Every structure is written in structure tokens, then in C-alpha cells.
Amino acid sequence: MNRRAQQVASNIEQAVTSVLARGLSDPRIRGMVTVTKVEMTDDLLIARIRVSIMPEEHEALTMHGLRAATGHIRREAMKKIHLRSMPTFEFFVDEGLKNQRKIIELLNQAKNERPGWQMRDDAPEEAIEESGEGEMSS
């Protein structure tokens, strides 16, 4: 993304966050909706808006509501941002945060299952010998 596209993306992110913070009247939009990233095409015609929705069970219905309210959100953003032509908005669920959360849960689960677990560098020599990794093979 070039510098101008980054500036427009930042402005759109602020405007859309503001619109979502005030709330929308669509009953399908539930939970906490957070704009995590806005990506612009180089020609500034399309803004891909990535959102995080908490709790996850409301995700599908909320995305349906957001996509239906795209025109309203775009009009409200136009009042805050003065561009010659406002890009078309496309909403997507940000999978990155969801994946991050799953990895952290798995790491915590592994840590809880093995309370005596330590990093390899800190592991006592008996533990390395018991696992068979300390033996040299010929």
C-alpha cells in the first residue's frame, strides 16, 4: 500500500470505528465489534475492513448485519472524511486474532497438563536422559 492509501485507510478506520461505537439500529449486530485493520487497494476504490466480533457465537449474524448496513456506514463515514470519491466498503472477519487466541489457549492447556514442564535449556539433565535425547547413537 502506498502512502496515500495508508492515510485514507487510517481515516476510514477512525470513521468506521466511530460509527460502530455509536451503534447501529440493526438488531443482527450484537456483541462487541472492533475494527482491527483497513486495507485499501492502490486505486483507492475498495476498502477491505477487517473486524473482530466478540463473542464468537454472534459472528455470522453480526457479519450479515454489517454487510447489510454497509451503505449506511459508508454514508456516515463520508460525513467525517472529505474525499472526492469514497471507496466501496467490504467487511471481513479478522481471522488473525481468532487464531492467536486459539494458540494461546493451546499453550495454556499444554502448560496446565504438564505442570513440571520447563523449557529445554532449563530442563534438568535427568529429564533429558529419561527422554532418550541425551544418548548418542552410533
Note down, in words, how this protein is organized.
With 138 residues, the protein is an alpha+beta fold. It folds into two domains: 3-93, GMP Synthetase, Chain A, domain 3; 95-132, no CATH class. It is 48% helix and 17% strand. A three-stranded mixed sheet has the order 1-2-3, sandwiched between helices. α1 (3-22) packs across α3. The protein is globular and about 60 Å long. The N and C termini lie far apart (55 Å). Mean pLDDT is 84; it is low at 133-138.
Summarize this entry quickly.
With 138 residues, the chain is an alpha+beta fold.
Question: What features would you highlight for this structure?
Answer:
138 residues; alpha+beta; GMP Synthetase, Chain A, domain 3; 2 domains; 3-stranded mixed sheet; 5 helices; 3 strands; globular; disordered C terminus
